[in-house]
Amino acid sequence: WTPGSAHIGPQSMTFIASGAVSRDTAQITLQLKIEPVSTLNIVSPNGGEEWVIGSTQTLSWSGTTTEQDNVLVSFTLMLADQTGASAGASIGRSGLPKRTPNDGSEPWVLSLPPYNAGEYRVRIDCVQNCKLLKNFRDESDAAFRVMKATSTPAP
Fold first, then answer.
1. Sequence-distant (≥ 6) Cβ neighbours of residue 40 within 8 angstroms
2. What is this structure's pTM?
3. Residue range 94-112, pLDDT digits in tens
4. What count of other Cβ atoms lies within 10 Å of the Cβ of residue 145?
5. What CA–CA distance (Å, rounded) separates 53 from 59?
């Protein structure tokens, strides 16, 4: 038996054993408390990356769940202040997945608009069936940089 999302919290299981010859029976009831095991954590971008506008990058995170658990996550892009901390100013989800399976990675195209060169942080949030997770949100530990593509002059 593998517990799923329907089993989070207190559970009771009763086992009954009977003898084939003597027909004696024994019963035992166990009281269990099933806790969530996964914790959402941003892996990339988690600070220090330098990504070019127009490139395709991979958002990655740990704390995944199985497909049958039907946990969905979403992402929000936030401006970073001059210290690299989150400025709290969300610039939305444009280009970021609004609802995606909690499978650990998602491609992301940094296209113009809305992305300008600058420093950003990304936040992951659980948006469906979140009781399987110990925490429902994480944010990049530090800022990552989005840069304009540089052109090389033709010879």
1. 61, 62, 63, 73, 102, 124, 126, 133, 135, 136, 137, 138
2. 0.66
3. 567 678 888 888 888 887 5
4. 17
5. 15
